[in-house]
């Protein structure tokens, strides 16, 4: 039933013929490198099969609609763990496991923020993950505005002490060349509280880390640093930040009341959920793929990162159905606690330290599930990174039916990061990024933002890349004569 | 200070030379009709002056930031009336007045909606204006979904009785040819409650009337009709409507709890705020311009319709500063209670019935303050409408520095509607419409959505059109030999 719909949909998205390959320009034998040449038939088979129909969207609908958001420690996250574990067993995968970790446990409570001078105006807000609460009646104080760190330096302690500090840093509109600007903007959310506390602020408000808003606040973690008091911090919508900043610019005194009944509780159990497509001849060598199963406690965690989870789950399901079992093992890891502690990532490295030297690659999908655009790669060893990037550029040719792909070096994903020191080749699954931060960490991150065809394209891309990395004679990031090379392909 | 900024800004928006007219193609003498020819110097003077700097954005910032939203009967609306009255006196206009009307008084209370089966999920909602409340503990019932009226007919009473009925009509994305699709979509908000009650529904939820959402509900009026029980009704966000509809489609029973403590109170006093640029030789002939001062009780009523108010206020202020006093009187009317009763519009017709025959035109600005695109016109008399449209097409040439403008017939605005029966030429001020309904009736309708240059362009357009209609020898909508024609222009 689905195959027909997907086939039609994909035609309109990437302009393909019914085979899944461009009609006007069939793949040329001389176009790719040795890996392209070796795997073009397998890649075509995977992509055609995925685009003809797969179970990823149904899985994601279940996760988003039946379970919903799933912050670490919530009953929702426990339910998500059970569901993912059962789903991977039902799909017939080997070694399905829930690998327990102890993780930070932050709980949002009743919360509100309102401008009370010069008039009463309730604001759209979300407390930041990890924040301490306010007193029961909240904190009421005049507001001082800093547009960036330079402003903060200029303001100095005398203008900040005893006040609520608003960081009004404006994340720029998405730029295809420069990207989202998230990296700069998120600093204020992460570091703002302690930077403000260092100068005597009693609480911090942060303009939401997004370029687009329909009065939508975006939460996320803060990090208390240094010897400064831990003060409450919340994100407010762009509109509310604009309101306050414009009034303050016009020399109108603004007073705000901030109430947050959140709590930092004792560490909670959570779990990475893992399962394997066990390799044939080199089963102890592992290619990890996955997204993080936890999410913030608003919306449905659809783009961040339910999509990444179901892409990985479906990638090995598709390969298993096609009976395309690579030499090495592909292990799905659905990470626990990416959003507020990385306890899953750290726990994995600890629990699997004896086999990390046999981890050939670890690929994270955590940038949303829009149209795939390629992969990123990084490695502690520069030569390894160079070789891996070259190999991946060759592999990208296999994905041409899904559009133009490229390889960027020097980044990957948060959950695979702790494996860096063990020399694992770390990879990030990249997608078109213009809308991701409109939804990220907000109540608007819901299933309706996920396009079924784009989700399938990501399944196809990841399944293909993971299959080839797991099967090719070369070990990713090592010269052809490296330790795991066999003579020829089977 | 502002002039330089505006001059630069306008250059980039409409590609003008510093004079405000296209550099490459100066206005041709043979291009317009007789009105263009007669008024080209005056029009140029108005447009250049407005675009060089004006007070409209400051006024709108004051209304939005210092007063905020202003539903009829709220203290905010009373403050808005006083502010507008004082502002127009300060601007030196004649006959500034608050003309009292008695208006419907609806008050939102605490309200919430949550899906409670198959899991607990609070929804983003706004009760509909005029709705009756629920019992204190709310209404809890299974949900039945109708995508449109056809679905409703198909469902029949047995599937609806005792249930909460969700109207899940999908407003299409904005289309430059077909427009917003608001007219069709809003029917479910206005009529849904009684259509549902007629079939036994216990409450109604309506998918918000918008094509874009970041979990943003949009309120608006409902109208109870017929002999059916008045049942509570609320708008929910697109995301929440999608969640419920997808679950119900998948045969998952969905139960919702809806709580609304809103109240319909006794009629409240409110007021149209009026002031005049009194005409020189025909002061008893009147051209009305205005927007509505009330708004919904969320956001700041910036696009709907603070912008329309300040455009009209500023239009006569600019003319007065230029000492361009037309023959006829231009009367600003800032309408009361457009959103939930039209009491201002109805009260004006009653209070001014003796002078309606001398109302030459009534122009409403209530479509947002994006880039101006022209005007609409309608008249009870078809010949009058034809003549007026022809004259207005001539006048549109005068606005060419602001972009291409056209005239549409057969529509105008809600507040001027009641003058139709008196033969007044009714006009609507039209603007580019792709984003208006993203913000309309929502918490996202805030000052940051208004571009200062686009606001100025609207002031320039309205000031020019109102000036010409008020000054030209012809009376709008009547042949040149009509009753108010003088011999020649001064």
Could you give a short description of this structure?
The structure is a homodimer of 490-residue chains. Chain A is α/β, with parallel strands linked by helices and 490 residues long. In chain A, 34% of the residues lie in helices and 22% in strands.
List keywords for this structure.
homodimer; 490 residues; alpha/beta; Aminopeptidase; Glucose Oxidase, domain 1; 8-stranded mixed beta sheet; 12 helices; elongated; disordered N terminus
Question: Could you describe the 3D structure shown?
Answer:
The structure is a homodimer. The first copy, chain A, is an alpha/beta fold and about 500 residues long. Chain A has two domains: about 1-105 and about 265-470, Zn peptidases (Aminopeptidase, 3-Layer(aba) Sandwich), CATH 3.40.630; about 110-260, Glucose Oxidase, domain 1. Helix content of chain A is about 35%, strand content about 20%. Chain A has twelve helices and 16 strands. The first copy, chain A, has helices at about 1-15, 35-50, 55-65, 75-90, 150-160, 180-200, 240-250, 300-320, 345-350, 380-395, 435-440, 450-470; strands at about 95-105, 110-115, 120, 125, 140-145, 165, 205, 235, 255-260, 265-275, 280-290, 330-335, 360-365, 370-380, 405-410, 425-430. In chain A, strands 1-10-12-11-13-16-14-15 form an eight-stranded mixed beta sheet. In chain A, helix 2 runs antiparallel to helix 12 (about 450-470), helix 3 crosses helix 8 and helix 8 (about 300-320) crosses helix 12 (about 450-470). Chain A is elongated and about 70 Å long. The relative contact order of chain A is 0.17. The interface of A and B includes residues 121 and 299 of A.
